[in-house]
Amino acid sequence: MTLDLFLSQKPLFYDVIDVERFPNAFKNIRHFHKIPKIIHLVGTNGKGSTGRFLATALMRAGKKTGHYTSPHIVRFNERIWMNGSEIGDNELEAAHQKLLSLLPWEIAQSLSYFEYTTLLAMMAYEECEYIVLEAGLGGEFDATNVFDKVLSIFTPIDFDHSAFLGNTIDSIALTKLRSMQSMALLGMQKHGEVSTIAQDIAREKKTKLYTVNEEKNRRIEEIALQIALKNNLSDYLRDNLELSMVAYELLGYEAVFSLFDQEALFGRLSRIARNVTLDVGHNALAARVIAEAFKGQKVTLIYNTYADKEYREILSILSPIIERVEIIEVDEARIVERELLEAALRELAIEYSPFETINDKREYLVFGSFSVAETFLKRIKNT
User: What is the largest CA-CA distance in the chain?
Assistant: First the structure.
């Protein structure tokens, strides 16, 4: 069975997560498969760009490196990046067939979309020296946490996926931070209790815990500033760049300009046209970053959202920069009911209308989710 057909039979989302299913599946192949050095990325925001900065630097330094991200925006292959480009169709299918040959059929069928994709990436990355592995949901019980790691990196932790992770920062942080092993790096945090919890868990697990503010030095700050100015990086991306540079040095290497001079991952405050910025963020923390980036400006927000997101809070945070909202139709079961979104917009006194086309005289921000970004990119490609 081809990969496309196999994955099409798996739902993308689940109401309940079986925390034993993936570890049990991995036991079936771990003795047949070489796992490279794993750098685990966990957090609410910043995983993608931090990971891409780090993976690209390792690759430029001569290390065969993979970067596993999720979800994809347009094409599944985006999830499995290796040495500077996404995996090819033939290599992807070969990894799928090899994985099916090792896994009992009933176990392969039982795995979720993300779980199977994670094992698939491991097959594709077998000859790599490093894998920068981005967690999907949470940390401790995420499929990516089954592998041994040389370093855990924690990007900013905030409210998200409350149905699975809890309604408090303490519960969310505990789930994410318990994934640390022998060495961990804590990025800048908005909530002070995250640092306290990290220190408690590190003592319990005997983890060497480092913080980005203590480990970054004047040289790293100066290099990051040069790169930020050259590539027009926002303060948010500059923070992620510094985090990746500190992580690189914790691995035993020296961070230099030539390795990290890059724009990082497409999809975070990406300028895709003269008057269009796209961002795949979908929570309040991402909204605050965007509101700061566009401070003093007004944009037309092309928007839609999943029903389980705090969309009223997100729109409230963005309201100072919003001139009007244009709602883009997204064919996805998780998208919020239109009348509920419109009610929130009316409550916030934000003018809105359906999205139709781009007006060259307006400044646009596309924001809401990966599905919103995918739908928008496909629509403008076909116009």
Answer: 59
Angle formed at CA 131 by CA 128 and CA 137, multiple of 5 degrees: 150
Amino acid 162: pLDDT: 57
Residue 134: inside a domain: yes
Rounded to the nearest integer, the mean pLDDT of the chain is 92
265 within domain boundaries: no
- 141 and 192 co-located in one domain: yes
Are 208 and 231 found together in one domain?
A: yes
Q: What mean pLDDT comes out for the span 288-315?
A: 93
H or E element at residue 380: helix 370-381
Asked if omega into 71 is within 30° of 0 (cis), the reply is yes
Computed from CA positions of residues 294, 296, 301, 306, in that sequence, does the dihedral angle turn out positive or negative? positive
Name the DSSP class of 336: P
Distance CA 182, CA 151 (A): 7
In a domain, 226, yes or no: yes
Cβ(274)–Cβ(369) below 8 Å = no
Q: Each residue of 48-67: pLDDT tens digit?
A: 999 999 999 999 999 999 99
Tokens of residue 2, six digits? 């081809």
Q: What is the H or E stretch that residue 164 is in? A: helix 162-165
C-beta of residue 59 within 8 angstroms of C-beta of residue 83 = yes
C-beta separation of 175 from 141 below 8 A: yes
Enter the pTM of the model: 0.86
Beta strands in the chain (DSSP E): 37-42, 65-68, 80-82, 85-86, 130-134, 151-154, 183-186, 208-211, 270-273, 276-279, 299-303, 322-327, 352-354, 364-367
Using an 8 Å Cβ cutoff, are 45 and 283 in contact? yes
Q: What is the CATH number of the domain that holds 324?
A: 3.90.190.20
Distance between CA atoms of residues 283 and 240, nearest Å? 17
The label of the residue with tokens 């685990």 reads: 40
CATH for 8: 3.40.1190.10
Domain that holds residue 198: 3-260
Task: For 195-217, write each residue's pLDDT tens digit.
Answer: 999 999 999 999 999 999 999 99
